[in-house]
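Researcher: Can you fold this with copper (II) ion in place?
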Amino acid sequence: MSRIPLFGAALAVAASLAFPTLANDAIRIEDAYFRMATPMAPNGAAFMIIHNDADTDDRLIDARSPIAKRVELHTHIDMGEGVMKMTHDEDGFEIPAHGSRALARGGDHVMFMGLIERPGDGESIPLTLVFEKAGEIVLEVPVDLERADGMGHGGHGHGAGGMGHGEGGMGHGEGGMSHGHGN
Ligand SMILES: [Cu+2]
């Protein structure tokens, strides 16, 4: 597949840091990125901030991408003593009216299980998000393998709101988190 149009789309996504670019009236996706824990990891994950500008709550209920065998909405639950359990969130992620929800390292994420394609840093990957009310939104998500937020012991930054662009010390460390399904 040609990467050139994807790259153009990645620029558009990057621009959404500053401006809402997606054409959906209700849902805006900010600062999306995709990463794998290691270049050979069997799985990957996408993170982003989802804004809901509508007057009613919405819910991210599904996600799809051709680059993985399965894509699921996951949540990390802190089991204490540094143990994080990753669970498939069957109910999806609620996005409150006029609010936002952060999908961030150590918390909610879109999990790509069984990568068919293994994108390189700076490329982008296609992702379709399915919302209960807003319907489907198709994104090109830039691959950012260097992204290092969430390191350290920033406590629980999982809530929405006030997170800026995710550079702060939110969430838990990455590294050896058990993104190990399907293996
Ligand atoms: Cu996961």
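Model: Folded with copper (II) ion in place. Residues 4-142 form a domain with the Immunoglobulin-like fold (CATH 2.60.40.1890).
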